[in-house]
Amino acid sequence: MSKVRKFFKALGILIVPILLLAGAAAYYLHQQINVPNVRSLAEGKAHTVYIASNSSLDDVVTSFKEAKVLEDTESFLWTAGKMNLKKHIHPGKYEIKQGLNNRQLVRQLRSGKSQAVDVTVISQRTLERVAGAVGKQLEADSTEIINLLRDQQYIKDLGFDSVSIASLIVPDTYRFGWSTDAKGFLSRMKTEYDRFWNEERTAKAKKQGVSPYEAMILASIVESETNKKDEMARIAGVYLNRHRKGWKLEADPTVKFAMGNFALRRILLKHLEYDSPYNTYMYEGFPPGPICIPSKSAIKGVINAEQHKYMYFCARDDFSGYHNFARTLREHNVNARNYHKALKARGIR
User: Fold this and answer.
1) What are the pLDDT digits (tens) for 182-216?
2) Cα(174)–Cα(189) distance, integer angstroms
3) Nearest-angstrom CA–CA distance, 261 and 266
4) Per residue in 323-338, pLDDT tens?
5) What is the DSSP letter of 161?
6) Helices and strands in the chain: count of H runs, count of E runs
């Protein structure tokens, strides 16, 4: 055998293993990058993963483990390393579809295209409760929200003070990025407040003889009086009639608020003597600020209040949640006696 043939034979012996190793490596890379690695769920379902601000790659993997996203964590980490994911981690809520391979998954995370979340802000008794509810829907910390709402300079910059700040929140469902922080949330609420109190609604409030702020205060009283949306405009009309005549509003919910006792079932004479600027049995006009965070329905009930001559209302004795309305004190007293009689029959004193 010539030296040339021997050389090529030896070379072949060397090349074959190299080719086999190269093939194996290529297959391994293919498996690492292109084979589906997101666990299957029910058809049409996706894994929901929340990635917090300032998360590391380890934090991302921990989130994936908690959500049981990956079939193989090591292959994901290998791909993430090759695609430099650690320098391109974006916070947010991610909907991860089943069947994605590591390359596709890393690309989704690098893109920062997270899902928006619908945050529902409802009527609440206090701002603390609003913050608590928001903190369960966004990354924003409820304590940070409250701390900002107590920061005098911050709320002054928003155009409010320590009392009027309760009127900042206009309940509704708003779309946010999940990673929105406390300042981002409150800044958005100021934007929505300004958007709600446009020229048309401000003009409607003025037509009722109140400012937007007074409308929010009255709406908080209406909200505390009834959960029947179809009755809010009528109740608002009663209070506006009293206000126009220079009467005291004499709203029971303001007494409960003044006393800090929302469990009161019946307001007695001794309760009416509780001295507080929020007690509308003692002081004329509107209380200094809202007694709750009123719903949009209650606010609209005020600025679109019914035009009628009712001066009184009392809960119906059928406990339906609706009220009987009266023009005269005599009519009202009849309604009140019937209601109190029903209360006694139920053992409520």
Assistant:
1) 999 999 999 999 999 999 999 999 999 999 999 99
2) 9
3) 11
4) 999 999 999 999 999 9
5) -
6) 15, 6
Instruction: Enumerate the domain spans of the chain.
Output: 46-111, 116-196, 199-308
pTM: 0.84
Residue 343 buriedness (CB in 10 A; 0-12 / 13-18 / 19+): middle
Q: How many CB atoms lie within 10 A of CB 154?
A: 15
User: DSSP secondary-structure letter at 267?
Assistant: -
CB atoms within 10 A of CB 346: 8
Query: Residue 177 pairs with which residues in a beta bridge?
Result: 116
C-alpha dist (Å) from residue 20 to 6, 7, 11, 12, 30: 22, 20, 14, 12, 15
Confidence class of residue 266 from pLDDT cuts 50, 70 and 90? confident
Question: What is 46-111's CATH number, 3.40.50.150, 3.30.70.270, 3.30.70.1050, 3.30.1490.480?
Answer: 3.30.1490.480
Gyration radius (Cα) of the chain, Å: 32
Spatial distance between the Cα atoms of 171 and 229, rounded to a whole number of angstroms: 14
Which helix (H) or strand (E) segment holds residue 212: the answer is helix 212-225
